């Protein structure tokens, strides 16, 4: 049997198709009488050839271009730009060539398109080849924005065969409004990943919209921290800039910091290329409502937003409703809007320094430098009463296209600043503003911003401070307190827009019939999530308990009316009687105490019902009064700046010089001293007296901070280094 296998193997090796195998074992000869050695040689030959062929890389495989992780490439871009924020960028084409960024952009767009994240290892080779063709087209200038029929890469959901479409369908595609092409969104993502770190390191600290880590909550905390003591406020709306600007003005703002021709041309083409929209829309005839079947989503179709999230989006304040969308720029539009409005931020920063006039009699702001972070850091919203001669200063924040300016001084100064602002916007943005669009209001009237009202009230707190000698002194003080309260009027308006209530003075909850076909458990869970987001939205409002309790009352009344209509209970009182105050008991059974339901719930065959949250004011959490730290920055910027500082050679030298000046020793020297003390105790006092000179030398080296003698500890008698190693291990 073994001899037959050896003969067959010998005949196979003689064929030309296995020439690589014969070359591999040409130095050996098969022995027909020793089948065991022949089998091992054949096995080794096959293993060698298979692994040898597997190691040969396919030159046409696009995955060979991915030498690094895309996130690592993005991180490096952020570090480089934050290290040199004032440097004009001229070379960005090499980032456009990085295939890792294109794969990362493909993953992000696929996640938005399909609702599921695609790992890099799961991206198919055909998709990588199409992605490479798209990258090459962008680099060669063959890419066109707004393509409708010819694509370099298509969405995984798009199964349309465009070659076999009829003329009517092709005409409809070319003449009606269509969503942005999949390949356009990939190019937008790549440009966004390249441009965002460049401008995030340059943007003003006064802008907070369309930026990572800077939300509406950040604006409210900044107002509470820095706007205390201001009497006059200028509230402006320049959101018409977000509707669109001339392409030349946008490109001019972009080229102040970016001078790469390829990137600028791509952005310019996205702005200039016309977007095809439907001119005439057919008026929909009123059709009687019919029973609609439950929609079943496809496997690759993303789930729509849940009801609670859709309702919460309806609570967006006026300042956050408008998101710019310019041409084919897509997600680049908010970034480009911030680039254009950054000139306004810089102009206002100059005005802040120009206007600052300190007064020595002022309690808080009396420094000639005019630092923004002056004031009471532990209680920033409180400003003690000063004399008639007060420090004059202004401050400014911008959230999207809405600005808020606080003026500490006479109204004439606010009027002068408004006039200069109108002239600046007319000259820079060709935007015609008037006094009505920039009203000047006193703090006593209440300033509405982000659905919160800014006002002040006079308080008489007891101030305690430590005097000379450590004596604690308590005295009655007087001052003004900046109050940031949620607007109940705006809350009622938003609920009315979402059809949760009707009426103004006496709001009456209305049933939310969108949840009519959902179970009681699912409906309660949806409303609990909605209430949790409302609690978080009003986190920094002084009247957080009151406003959240009102929201809970409206939602609870709306659900009670819904359940009364659904289960034919006629009134809310009967619903509360059966389902309890928080609607946690099942309404199908009488009083919710049926033994059948309890048994099913115990066995896990029935769905448990969570009661509504925050049904009482005592259950609502307190207002968050945590003051904003001095020099606040988002967490990602803190990490970047700390990373850059620790990798700076100057930081290491400063730490070493500080150790020497303060007489401290390094951890390595400290371990060496511990080893030396261990040896001293182990040898004994009598034996150690002979090595006193060596010990003194070592002590002198440790005090001077020298690195010599730290690795190999030597005494006057030249002791063995193995003993030193054993001592160090014992200490460890």
From TrEMBL:
InterPro entries xrefs: DNA/RNA_pol_sf (IPR043502), Domain_X (IPR024937), GrpII_Intron_Splice-Mob/Def (IPR051083)
A Pfam family recorded for this sequence: Intron_maturas2
One GO CC annotation: mitochondrion
Transmembrane segments: none
GO BP term (any one): mRNA processing
Coiled-coil features, chain-numbered ranges: none
Stretches for region Disordered: 706-732
Domain X domain mapped to chain residues: 484-591
Record-given protein name: Domain X domain-containing protein
The organism of origin for this protein: Escallonia herrerae
